[in-house]
Amino acid sequence: MMMELMQSKYRGFHQQMLTADGKAVEFYKALGFERAGKTEPMWVYAGNDH
Predict the structure, then answer these.
(1) pLDDT of residue 50
(2) CB-count exposure of residue 3 (10 Å: 0-12, 13-18, 19+)
(3) Stretch 18-36: mean pLDDT, rounded?
(4) Rounded to an integer, what distance in angstroms lies between the CA atom of residue 9 and that of residue 42?
(5) Is the CB of residue 26 less than 8 Å from the CB of residue 34?
(6) Of 22, 26, 33, 46, which has the most beta carbons under 10 Å away?
(7) Residue 19 above 90 pLDDT?
(8) What is the spatial distance between Cα 25 and Cα 28, in angstroms, rounded to a whole number?
(9) Of the candidates 15, 18, 14, the residue with the CA atom closest to the CA atom of residue 3
(10) Looking at the predicted structure, is the pLDDT value of residue 26 above 90?
């Protein structure tokens, strides 16, 4: 339901981006999201929870 609301609000945008990892990847793929070409996710992260 939350994704349906988000999609309805931003339907007219030419691009929607999100960051997903683990089991969430398959969830978002089922909603129509796909990997953006040959991009690789990258970050600078100072935390320690990964």
Answers:
(1) 60
(2) middle
(3) 88
(4) 28
(5) no
(6) 33
(7) no
(8) 5
(9) 18
(10) yes
CA-closest candidate to residue 35, choices 49, 45, 21, 14: 21
Q: DSSP characters for the chain? A: -HHHHHHHHHTTSS-------TTHHHHHHHTT----TT------------
* pTM for this predicted structure: 0.61
40: which 2 tokens?
Answer: 């690789």
Q: Which residue has the tokens 């988000």?
A: 6
Position of tokens 């793929």?
29
Tokens linked to 18? 């999100």
Q: Cα torsion for 32, 37, 14, 3, to the nearest 10°?
A: 30
